[in-house]
Amino acid sequence: MQRFRRSFRQLPDPRAGNARHDLLEVLFIALAAVVCGAGSCAEMEEFGRSKEGLLRLFLGLEHGIPSHERSVISLGSGCTQEGRFGLE
Which of 29, 50, 68, 72 could bridge 42 with an S-S bond, Cβ 3.0-4.6 Å? Predict the structure, then answer.
């Protein structure tokens, strides 16, 4: 996780100052979910919830797993209105 944080630490956070979830944790969960076959923000949330015990071994997850609505906000245009990742 340290290498991931170093790689993305200067990435600007476009969310409001009151964002609950750590942006890098949201991005890490999104990346892991996509690598494991997730194709939507809802599937990313499902992945996070199903792997929460494992993810907590190296992520703080102070506010738990982000909901798919929070992920859409965090990922901005990375998710379409339908909740699908813009990967097609």
Answer: 68
